[in-house]
Amino acid sequence: MIYLDYNATAPLADEVVQSITEALTSAWGNPSSSHEAGRRAKELISESRSNVAACIGADPSNIVFTSGGSESNNWVIQSILSCHNGGEPNAKPHVVTSTVEHDSVLVPLDGLAQRGFIELTKVAIDKSSGEINPQDVIKEIKASTKLVTIMLANNETGTIMPIKEIVSCARHMEAKFNHKLFIHTDAAQAIGKIPIDVVDLDVDFLTIAGHKFYGPRTGALYMKCPSLEPLIYGGGQERGLRAGTENTPMIVGLGMAAKLVKENLDVYAENMRVTRDYLEDKLKEVFGDNVTFNCKSPNRLPNTCNFSFIGHGLKGYKVVKMAKSFSCSTGSACHASKCQPSKVLLNFHIKEENAANALRISTGRTTSVSDIDLVLAELRSI
């Protein structure tokens, strides 16, 4: 079976498996203990923190380990809004986000808005560019705005959002209203596929999810300054922000995955791009006008191809069920059990019939042209 759903999750790299295995046997001590076993675990956690930081151009002191991307996203949202009011007496804090965010951003924000705790604005995708228009974000910022959260890259279409431009404009608004405006980006889908430099982006928070770049199902949160309320109170681990004895083996695995990205990103991304582009060229060649592509922006991840066959009876989930030689997604893997069109694709202004027919193929580090040829042969038969 050819695996082509790397945007959903990636297998552990061999080096990651080895690092986790070694940590399980050699770094089992409590990192808070002062004896040799504890010091060994603490050293490996420190090394892993440095590796994660280097992967995104950060200082190690700015990295806090979490259970994954969803925890990181929720932590930023809940903490910012509990620590910082709307800037005026009795004002609700205002949040600006987009209509195509991951559910771990949209669901908590919607819940807070429905309970009357925040005012929420969702910026739509610009029809002409296929991206978030920075000016559409900026015009929504006002004196009570406390948080702007826009993903770095979309998991379904692969669209890369203009975060640097959004942040630059938002900083001008911050000066205009003379209060701190926190900016968060969910980079879960981007790490391991495109270069990321948090200093260049100038975001306050950035979400990291290990399993998207051949690491374990754990994660981290970059924070420019310690402006979050502690997620868990207790023993003071993670600078007092997330108490609890650290999961040393998984942290070590995350650090190794980040190190591999730092050292090999160009090679990884090039293979993803070559195989993805080959797939798209062959789809056009074989199916012509009977196939349409659902990412309208030229700025996209190198591995993601979201496309639809034109016509009734060609729904994506049916094609996936019939496929015997490969596995892929019908949109976001989080919604793969449902048969209605992806709300994200609809919010990218994809026609409902095309959204229902969508397939998302996401290539990986070891995907080959011969793999793509086998996929195309089966798609012809289906």
From TrEMBL:
<dbReference type="InterPro" id="IPR015421">
    <property type="entry name" value="PyrdxlP-dep_Trfase_major"/>
</dbReference>
<keyword id="KW-0456">Lyase</keyword>
<dbReference type="GO" id="GO:0016740">
    <property type="term" value="F:transferase activity"/>
</dbReference>
<protein>
    <recommendedName>
        <fullName>Selenocysteine lyase</fullName>
        <ecNumber>4.4.1.16</ecNumber>
    </recommendedName>
</protein>
<keyword id="KW-0663">Pyridoxal phosphate</keyword>
<keyword id="KW-0963">Cytoplasm</keyword>
<dbReference type="GO" id="GO:0005829">
    <property type="term" value="C:cytosol"/>
</dbReference>
<dbReference type="InterPro" id="IPR015422">
    <property type="entry name" value="PyrdxlP-dep_Trfase_small"/>
</dbReference>
<dbReference type="InterPro" id="IPR000192">
    <property type="entry name" value="Aminotrans_V_dom"/>
</dbReference>
<dbReference type="GO" id="GO:0009000">
    <property type="term" value="F:selenocysteine lyase activity"/>
</dbReference>
<comment type="similarity">
    <text>Belongs to the class-V pyridoxal-phosphate-dependent aminotransferase family.</text>
</comment>
<dbReference type="Pfam" id="PF00266">
    <property type="entry name" value="Aminotran_5"/>
</dbReference>
<keyword id="KW-0808">Transferase</keyword>
<comment type="subunit">
    <text>Homodimer.</text>
</comment>
<dbReference type="InterPro" id="IPR016454">
    <property type="entry name" value="Cysteine_dSase"/>
</dbReference>
<comment type="function">
    <text>Catalyzes the decomposition of L-selenocysteine to L-alanine and elemental selenium.</text>
</comment>
<dbReference type="InterPro" id="IPR015424">
    <property type="entry name" value="PyrdxlP-dep_Trfase"/>
</dbReference>
<feature type="domain" description="Aminotransferase class V">
    <location>
        <begin position="2"/>
        <end position="374"/>
    </location>
</feature>
